[in-house]
Design brief:
Distance between the termini: 18 Å
Number of helices: 17
Low-confidence stretches: 366-379
Strand content: 5-15%
Order of helices and strands: HEHEHHEHEHEHEHEHEHEHEHEHHEHHH
Oligomer: single chain
Number of strands: 12
Helix content: 40-55%
Strand order of the largest sheet: 9-8-7-10-11-12
Shape: globular
Protein backbone atom coordinates (compact mmCIF):
# COMPACT_ATOMS: atom_id res chain seq x y z
CA UNK A 1 0.00 0.00 0.00
CA UNK A 2 2.87 2.39 0.79
CA UNK A 3 4.50 1.69 -2.58
CA UNK A 4 1.17 2.30 -4.29
CA UNK A 5 0.77 5.64 -2.51
CA UNK A 6 4.26 6.63 -3.65
CA UNK A 7 3.34 5.75 -7.24
CA UNK A 8 0.08 7.70 -6.97
CA UNK A 9 1.87 10.74 -5.60
CA UNK A 10 4.45 10.56 -8.40
CA UNK A 11 1.61 10.70 -10.93
CA UNK A 12 -0.57 13.18 -8.98
CA UNK A 13 1.59 15.20 -6.53
CA UNK A 14 -1.43 17.07 -5.11
CA UNK A 15 -3.16 13.86 -4.03
CA UNK A 16 -4.02 13.75 -0.32
CA UNK A 17 -4.29 10.36 1.42
CA UNK A 18 -5.66 9.34 4.82
CA UNK A 19 -5.57 5.75 6.05
CA UNK A 20 -6.17 3.07 8.60
CA UNK A 21 -2.72 1.56 8.25
CA UNK A 22 0.71 1.49 9.78
CA UNK A 23 4.23 2.98 9.87
CA UNK A 24 5.04 2.23 6.21
CA UNK A 25 2.05 4.27 5.04
CA UNK A 26 2.92 7.03 7.46
CA UNK A 27 6.46 7.16 6.08
CA UNK A 28 4.94 7.46 2.59
CA UNK A 29 3.28 10.71 3.67
CA UNK A 30 -0.17 9.36 4.55
CA UNK A 31 -2.14 10.80 7.47
CA UNK A 32 -3.04 7.90 9.78
CA UNK A 33 -6.46 7.79 11.42
CA UNK A 34 -5.33 4.70 13.36
CA UNK A 35 -2.47 2.20 13.32
CA UNK A 36 -3.97 -1.24 12.66
CA UNK A 37 -0.74 -3.23 12.41
CA UNK A 38 -1.31 -4.69 15.89
CA UNK A 39 -4.55 -6.32 14.66
CA UNK A 40 -2.82 -8.58 12.12
CA UNK A 41 -4.49 -11.99 12.21
CA UNK A 42 -5.24 -15.06 10.12
CA UNK A 43 -8.91 -15.97 9.89
CA UNK A 44 -11.98 -14.62 11.69
CA UNK A 45 -11.33 -16.44 14.98
CA UNK A 46 -7.90 -14.86 15.40
CA UNK A 47 -9.24 -11.49 14.25
CA UNK A 48 -12.06 -11.63 16.81
CA UNK A 49 -9.51 -10.95 19.56
CA UNK A 50 -9.17 -7.45 18.13
CA UNK A 51 -12.89 -6.75 17.81
CA UNK A 52 -12.83 -3.70 20.08
CA UNK A 53 -9.89 -2.14 18.28
CA UNK A 54 -11.45 -2.74 14.86
CA UNK A 55 -14.79 -1.29 16.00
CA UNK A 56 -12.95 1.82 17.18
CA UNK A 57 -11.20 2.06 13.78
CA UNK A 58 -14.54 1.77 12.00
CA UNK A 59 -15.95 4.65 14.05
CA UNK A 60 -12.92 6.80 13.27
CA UNK A 61 -13.26 6.06 9.57
CA UNK A 62 -17.02 6.71 9.55
CA UNK A 63 -16.49 10.13 11.14
CA UNK A 64 -13.75 10.95 8.63
CA UNK A 65 -15.87 9.90 5.66
CA UNK A 66 -18.80 12.00 6.84
CA UNK A 67 -16.64 15.06 7.48
CA UNK A 68 -14.38 14.97 4.43
CA UNK A 69 -16.13 12.89 1.73
CA UNK A 70 -12.99 11.57 -0.05
CA UNK A 71 -13.13 11.04 -3.80
CA UNK A 72 -12.18 7.36 -3.54
CA UNK A 73 -11.64 4.69 -0.88
CA UNK A 74 -8.98 2.07 -1.61
CA UNK A 75 -9.38 -1.18 0.36
CA UNK A 76 -6.24 -3.29 0.80
CA UNK A 77 -6.43 -7.04 1.59
CA UNK A 78 -8.01 -7.88 5.03
CA UNK A 79 -11.19 -9.31 3.50
CA UNK A 80 -12.80 -10.33 6.81
CA UNK A 81 -12.97 -6.66 7.80
CA UNK A 82 -12.90 -4.67 4.57
CA UNK A 83 -15.62 -6.51 2.64
CA UNK A 84 -18.48 -6.97 5.13
CA UNK A 85 -17.73 -3.97 7.37
CA UNK A 86 -15.93 -1.15 5.56
CA UNK A 87 -17.14 -1.53 1.96
CA UNK A 88 -20.89 -1.15 2.84
CA UNK A 89 -20.09 1.83 5.06
CA UNK A 90 -18.29 3.58 2.20
CA UNK A 91 -20.88 2.76 -0.45
CA UNK A 92 -23.78 4.05 1.67
CA UNK A 93 -22.13 7.45 1.34
CA UNK A 94 -21.88 7.11 -2.43
CA UNK A 95 -18.05 7.00 -2.44
CA UNK A 96 -16.41 4.81 -5.13
CA UNK A 97 -14.34 1.82 -3.97
CA UNK A 98 -11.26 0.18 -5.50
CA UNK A 99 -9.72 -2.95 -3.99
CA UNK A 100 -5.99 -3.73 -4.05
CA UNK A 101 -4.65 -7.19 -3.10
CA UNK A 102 -7.60 -9.49 -3.48
CA UNK A 103 -8.82 -11.48 -0.47
CA UNK A 104 -8.44 -15.18 -1.26
CA UNK A 105 -12.08 -15.64 -2.21
CA UNK A 106 -10.99 -18.10 -4.90
CA UNK A 107 -9.74 -20.42 -2.14
CA UNK A 108 -12.45 -20.00 0.46
CA UNK A 109 -15.21 -17.54 1.13
CA UNK A 110 -16.67 -17.44 -2.39
CA UNK A 111 -19.95 -16.44 -0.78
CA UNK A 112 -18.29 -13.04 -0.19
CA UNK A 113 -18.31 -12.40 -3.93
CA UNK A 114 -21.69 -10.78 -3.36
CA UNK A 115 -19.94 -8.05 -1.38
CA UNK A 116 -17.48 -7.49 -4.21
CA UNK A 117 -20.22 -7.27 -6.85
CA UNK A 118 -22.28 -4.91 -4.72
CA UNK A 119 -19.64 -2.61 -3.27
CA UNK A 120 -16.40 -2.72 -5.29
CA UNK A 121 -16.05 -0.64 -8.45
CA UNK A 122 -12.74 -2.22 -9.49
CA UNK A 123 -10.50 -5.06 -8.28
CA UNK A 124 -6.72 -4.75 -8.75
CA UNK A 125 -5.05 -8.17 -8.49
CA UNK A 126 -1.59 -9.75 -8.33
CA UNK A 127 -2.13 -13.03 -10.21
CA UNK A 128 -3.48 -13.91 -13.68
CA UNK A 129 -5.82 -16.58 -12.26
CA UNK A 130 -7.40 -13.93 -10.00
CA UNK A 131 -8.22 -11.82 -13.05
CA UNK A 132 -9.90 -14.81 -14.69
CA UNK A 133 -11.80 -15.55 -11.45
CA UNK A 134 -13.26 -12.06 -11.16
CA UNK A 135 -13.99 -11.69 -14.88
CA UNK A 136 -16.02 -14.91 -14.75
CA UNK A 137 -17.95 -13.40 -11.83
CA UNK A 138 -18.67 -10.19 -13.77
CA UNK A 139 -16.43 -7.99 -11.60
CA UNK A 140 -14.34 -5.21 -13.26
CA UNK A 141 -10.73 -6.28 -12.68
CA UNK A 142 -7.15 -5.53 -13.72
CA UNK A 143 -4.13 -7.76 -13.25
CA UNK A 144 -1.07 -5.61 -12.55
CA UNK A 145 1.55 -8.24 -11.69
CA UNK A 146 3.21 -8.90 -8.35
CA UNK A 147 5.16 -6.22 -6.41
CA UNK A 148 7.81 -8.81 -5.49
CA UNK A 149 9.07 -8.52 -9.05
CA UNK A 150 10.24 -5.02 -8.13
CA UNK A 151 12.45 -6.13 -5.27
CA UNK A 152 16.09 -5.18 -5.62
CA UNK A 153 18.58 -7.99 -6.33
CA UNK A 154 21.02 -8.97 -3.57
CA UNK A 155 23.27 -6.08 -2.58
CA UNK A 156 26.22 -8.44 -2.07
CA UNK A 157 27.55 -11.54 -3.76
CA UNK A 158 26.71 -14.88 -2.16
CA UNK A 159 30.25 -15.17 -0.85
CA UNK A 160 30.26 -11.65 0.62
CA UNK A 161 26.83 -12.14 2.21
CA UNK A 162 27.86 -15.48 3.76
CA UNK A 163 30.98 -13.87 5.18
CA UNK A 164 28.99 -10.93 6.58
CA UNK A 165 26.48 -13.29 8.25
CA UNK A 166 29.26 -15.40 9.76
CA UNK A 167 28.41 -18.55 7.78
CA UNK A 168 30.93 -21.27 7.02
CA UNK A 169 31.45 -21.34 3.25
CA UNK A 170 32.17 -25.11 3.37
CA UNK A 171 28.93 -26.09 5.07
CA UNK A 172 25.46 -26.43 3.55
CA UNK A 173 22.89 -23.84 4.63
CA UNK A 174 19.20 -24.34 5.39
CA UNK A 175 16.98 -21.29 5.79
CA UNK A 176 14.25 -20.91 8.42
CA UNK A 177 11.47 -18.45 7.50
CA UNK A 178 8.80 -18.59 10.24
CA UNK A 179 6.83 -15.47 9.19
CA UNK A 180 6.81 -11.89 10.42
CA UNK A 181 3.58 -11.51 12.43
CA UNK A 182 3.81 -12.11 16.17
CA UNK A 183 1.33 -15.01 16.25
CA UNK A 184 3.00 -16.66 13.24
CA UNK A 185 6.39 -16.48 14.93
CA UNK A 186 5.01 -17.91 18.16
CA UNK A 187 3.56 -20.91 16.32
CA UNK A 188 6.25 -21.50 13.72
CA UNK A 189 9.63 -20.62 15.23
CA UNK A 190 9.59 -23.33 17.96
CA UNK A 191 8.44 -25.84 15.32
CA UNK A 192 11.22 -24.81 12.92
CA UNK A 193 13.85 -25.08 15.64
CA UNK A 194 12.69 -28.66 16.28
CA UNK A 195 12.90 -29.31 12.54
CA UNK A 196 16.42 -27.87 12.52
CA UNK A 197 17.46 -30.26 15.30
CA UNK A 198 16.13 -33.19 13.25
CA UNK A 199 18.06 -32.03 10.16
CA UNK A 200 21.24 -31.51 12.18
CA UNK A 201 20.91 -35.03 13.62
CA UNK A 202 20.45 -36.53 10.14
CA UNK A 203 23.11 -34.35 8.45
CA UNK A 204 25.76 -33.14 10.90
CA UNK A 205 27.50 -30.03 9.59
CA UNK A 206 24.41 -28.33 8.17
CA UNK A 207 24.10 -24.71 9.31
CA UNK A 208 20.90 -22.71 9.73
CA UNK A 209 20.11 -19.14 8.69
CA UNK A 210 17.10 -17.17 9.95
CA UNK A 211 16.34 -13.83 8.22
CA UNK A 212 15.08 -11.38 10.86
CA UNK A 213 11.88 -9.68 9.74
CA UNK A 214 11.59 -5.95 10.49
CA UNK A 215 9.76 -5.32 13.74
CA UNK A 216 10.67 -8.65 15.36
CA UNK A 217 11.94 -8.02 18.89
CA UNK A 218 15.60 -9.04 19.08
CA UNK A 219 15.46 -9.96 22.78
CA UNK A 220 12.47 -12.31 22.24
CA UNK A 221 14.20 -13.91 19.26
CA UNK A 222 17.45 -14.45 21.17
CA UNK A 223 15.58 -16.08 24.07
CA UNK A 224 13.99 -18.54 21.65
CA UNK A 225 17.29 -19.35 19.95
CA UNK A 226 19.10 -19.78 23.28
CA UNK A 227 16.80 -22.73 24.05
CA UNK A 228 16.94 -24.20 20.53
CA UNK A 229 19.59 -26.87 21.07
CA UNK A 230 21.00 -26.04 17.63
CA UNK A 231 23.02 -23.07 16.38
CA UNK A 232 21.05 -20.64 14.20
CA UNK A 233 22.60 -17.60 12.53
CA UNK A 234 20.34 -14.53 12.42
CA UNK A 235 20.57 -12.46 9.24
CA UNK A 236 19.60 -8.79 9.38
CA UNK A 237 19.11 -6.68 6.27
CA UNK A 238 17.57 -7.37 2.84
CA UNK A 239 16.09 -10.85 2.63
CA UNK A 240 17.51 -11.26 -0.88
CA UNK A 241 21.02 -11.36 0.60
CA UNK A 242 20.03 -14.18 2.96
CA UNK A 243 18.04 -16.23 0.44
CA UNK A 244 20.96 -16.55 -1.96
CA UNK A 245 22.97 -18.28 0.79
CA UNK A 246 20.38 -21.07 1.22
CA UNK A 247 20.44 -24.47 -0.46
CA UNK A 248 17.04 -25.39 1.00
CA UNK A 249 14.53 -23.74 3.32
CA UNK A 250 11.62 -24.37 5.67
CA UNK A 251 9.06 -21.64 4.98
CA UNK A 252 5.80 -20.63 6.66
CA UNK A 253 3.00 -20.47 4.10
CA UNK A 254 2.45 -16.94 2.82
CA UNK A 255 4.22 -14.40 0.65
CA UNK A 256 7.58 -15.75 1.86
CA UNK A 257 7.02 -18.83 -0.31
CA UNK A 258 7.00 -16.57 -3.37
CA UNK A 259 10.10 -14.69 -2.19
CA UNK A 260 11.86 -18.01 -1.73
CA UNK A 261 10.62 -19.23 -5.11
CA UNK A 262 11.94 -16.12 -6.87
CA UNK A 263 15.35 -16.83 -5.34
CA UNK A 264 15.21 -20.40 -6.70
CA UNK A 265 15.56 -21.99 -3.26
CA UNK A 266 14.00 -25.49 -2.88
CA UNK A 267 11.67 -25.53 0.12
CA UNK A 268 9.27 -27.36 2.37
CA UNK A 269 6.23 -25.30 3.44
CA UNK A 270 4.72 -25.52 6.92
CA UNK A 271 1.74 -23.84 8.53
CA UNK A 272 -0.02 -23.93 11.87
CA UNK A 273 -2.95 -21.80 12.98
CA UNK A 274 -5.52 -21.96 15.76
CA UNK A 275 -7.60 -25.13 15.72
CA UNK A 276 -10.96 -23.33 15.26
CA UNK A 277 -9.56 -21.49 12.22
CA UNK A 278 -8.07 -24.71 10.85
CA UNK A 279 -11.33 -26.67 11.21
CA UNK A 280 -13.40 -23.95 9.52
CA UNK A 281 -10.79 -23.53 6.77
CA UNK A 282 -10.70 -27.29 6.16
CA UNK A 283 -14.43 -27.25 5.52
CA UNK A 284 -14.41 -24.09 3.43
CA UNK A 285 -11.23 -24.26 1.32
CA UNK A 286 -11.99 -25.28 -2.25
CA UNK A 287 -8.43 -25.70 -3.58
CA UNK A 288 -6.03 -28.61 -2.96
CA UNK A 289 -3.01 -26.53 -1.84
CA UNK A 290 -2.54 -23.52 0.42
CA UNK A 291 1.05 -22.43 -0.32
CA UNK A 292 0.98 -19.49 -2.74
CA UNK A 293 3.82 -20.96 -4.75
CA UNK A 294 1.71 -24.07 -5.41
CA UNK A 295 -1.48 -22.08 -6.04
CA UNK A 296 0.30 -19.94 -8.64
CA UNK A 297 1.87 -23.00 -10.25
CA UNK A 298 -1.51 -24.72 -10.46
CA UNK A 299 -0.03 -27.90 -9.03
CA UNK A 300 1.98 -29.04 -6.01
CA UNK A 301 5.63 -28.29 -6.76
CA UNK A 302 6.78 -27.95 -3.14
CA UNK A 303 5.65 -30.17 -0.25
CA UNK A 304 3.17 -28.77 2.28
CA UNK A 305 2.90 -29.72 5.96
CA UNK A 306 -0.17 -28.14 7.55
CA UNK A 307 -1.32 -28.25 11.19
CA UNK A 308 -0.89 -31.80 12.62
CA UNK A 309 1.12 -32.88 9.55
CA UNK A 310 3.77 -30.28 10.42
CA UNK A 311 5.73 -32.77 12.52
CA UNK A 312 9.45 -32.02 13.01
CA UNK A 313 10.60 -35.49 11.96
CA UNK A 314 8.43 -35.54 8.83
CA UNK A 315 9.48 -32.05 7.69
CA UNK A 316 13.12 -32.53 8.67
CA UNK A 317 13.39 -35.76 6.69
CA UNK A 318 11.84 -34.01 3.67
CA UNK A 319 14.48 -31.27 3.78
CA UNK A 320 17.27 -33.83 4.15
CA UNK A 321 15.93 -35.64 1.08
CA UNK A 322 15.97 -32.35 -0.86
CA UNK A 323 19.58 -31.72 0.12
CA UNK A 324 20.73 -35.22 -0.83
CA UNK A 325 18.75 -35.72 -4.04
CA UNK A 326 20.24 -33.40 -6.66
CA UNK A 327 17.87 -34.34 -9.54
CA UNK A 328 14.91 -33.66 -7.26
CA UNK A 329 16.33 -30.28 -6.28
CA UNK A 330 16.90 -29.35 -9.91
CA UNK A 331 13.36 -30.39 -10.88
CA UNK A 332 11.92 -28.21 -8.09
CA UNK A 333 14.09 -25.27 -9.13
CA UNK A 334 12.88 -25.62 -12.74
CA UNK A 335 9.26 -25.49 -11.51
CA UNK A 336 10.08 -22.41 -9.39
CA UNK A 337 11.38 -20.66 -12.50
CA UNK A 338 8.01 -21.33 -14.15
CA UNK A 339 6.29 -19.62 -11.21
CA UNK A 340 8.52 -16.59 -11.63
CA UNK A 341 7.45 -16.30 -15.26
CA UNK A 342 3.76 -15.98 -14.24
CA UNK A 343 4.22 -13.05 -11.85
CA UNK A 344 4.49 -10.35 -14.50
CA UNK A 345 7.22 -7.74 -14.85
CA UNK A 346 8.44 -4.92 -12.58
CA UNK A 347 6.16 -1.89 -12.30
CA UNK A 348 3.13 -3.36 -10.50
CA UNK A 349 2.74 -0.32 -8.23
CA UNK A 350 2.79 2.07 -11.18
CA UNK A 351 0.22 0.00 -13.09
CA UNK A 352 -1.98 -0.21 -10.00
CA UNK A 353 -1.71 3.57 -9.57
CA UNK A 354 -2.86 4.07 -13.16
CA UNK A 355 -5.97 1.95 -12.46
CA UNK A 356 -6.73 3.81 -9.23
CA UNK A 357 -6.44 7.17 -10.97
CA UNK A 358 -8.66 5.93 -13.80
CA UNK A 359 -11.39 4.92 -11.33
CA UNK A 360 -10.94 8.21 -9.49
CA UNK A 361 -11.34 10.27 -12.69
CA UNK A 362 -14.25 8.17 -13.94
CA UNK A 363 -16.17 8.92 -10.76
CA UNK A 364 -15.23 12.58 -10.48
CA UNK A 365 -17.95 15.13 -11.34
CA UNK A 366 -16.09 16.21 -14.50
CA UNK A 367 -15.49 12.70 -15.78
CA UNK A 368 -18.92 12.13 -17.27
CA UNK A 369 -19.34 8.62 -18.62
CA UNK A 370 -15.74 7.54 -19.18
CA UNK A 371 -15.24 3.82 -19.73
CA UNK A 372 -14.07 1.56 -16.96
CA UNK A 373 -10.32 0.80 -16.98
CA UNK A 374 -9.58 -2.32 -18.97
CA UNK A 375 -7.61 -5.29 -17.70
CA UNK A 376 -3.92 -5.39 -18.52
CA UNK A 377 -2.94 -8.64 -20.15
CA UNK A 378 0.85 -8.32 -19.94
CA UNK A 379 2.06 -6.44 -16.87
Amino acid sequence: AARLVEALRAAEPALQCTALGGPALQQAGVTLLDDLTATAAIGPFDASRHFGRLLHAKKLLAAHLQAHRPDLVLLVDFGDFNLPVIAPLVKRLGIPVAYYISPQLWAWGRFRLRYVRRYVDHMIVFFPFEEAFYRAAGVPVTWVGHPLMEQAPPARTKEAAALAFGLNAWRRTVGLLPGSRAHELERHLPLMLQIARRIAWRMPGVQFLLPKAPGVASDWLQRQLAQAGVEVVVAEGPIADALQCMEAAVVASGTATLETALAGVPMAVVYRTSWPTYVIASLAVKIPDIALVNVVAGRRIVPEFVQHRAHPRRVGDEVVALLRDEPRREAMQAALREVRATLGSPGAAQRAAAVVLSVLRKNSPAAGSNARPQGSRSP
